[in-house]
Structure formats: structure tokens, C-alpha cells
Design brief:
- The protein has one domain (3-64).
- The chain contains 4 helices and no strands.
- It has helices spanning 3-14, 20-27, 31-41, 44-54.
- It is globular.
Length: 81
């Protein structure tokens, strides 16, 4: 895995609306492997903040999402100014 791939995975993991399943589909990493990557690459305080942020968040798990949710990001997220 390249540093660019790791950087994108970390970015996707921080995004509220990107489920772990999307990371698994794109990069072949399970939720546990993403957590391990985040633990290795983030400062301890940043890792704890991230874990608190994603713990139990419905948008991070496809099975917990509302069935009508068909996108992985906020419509304004990639808007160019």
C-alpha cells in the first residue's frame, strides 16, 4: 500500500458519511484493519478523538444507515469554489 493510499484511507475514515464498507470495497481493508492503520498513523490523542467520533455512528456502517442513503458524502463536500 502506498503512502497516498494510506492518506486517502485516513481521509475516508475521518469523513462522517463514508462507511467502513466503502473503504473495504476500495482498498480491501476490514474495519479492524482501518482501526489498526489509524492507531499506527495518528497521534494517540487524535486516534482517541477519532474513535470517540466514529463509535456507534450510524453513517459509518451501511447496515445502520437509512435505506434511502445512496451516497457516501455530503453534497457540498467536494464543491469547488
Amino acid at each position: 500500500m502506498t503512502l497516498q493510499d494510506e492518506s486517502r484511507i485516513i481521509e475516508m475514515a475521518w469523513e462522517d458519511r463514508t462507511p467502513f464498507e466503502a473503504i473495504a470495497f476500495n482498498y480491501g481493508l476490514s474495519e479492524g484493519e482501518v482501526i489498526a492503520l489509524m492507531r499506527r498513523r495518528l497521534k494517540p490523542s487524535s486516534f482517541r478523538l477519532w474513535r470517540r467520533r466514529v463509535a456507534g455512528r450510524k453513517t459509518k456502517h451501511e447496515q445502520l444507515r437509512h435505506p434511502g442513503t445512496i451516497r457516501a458524502y455530503c453534497p457540498s463536500q467536494y464543491r469547488h469554489r
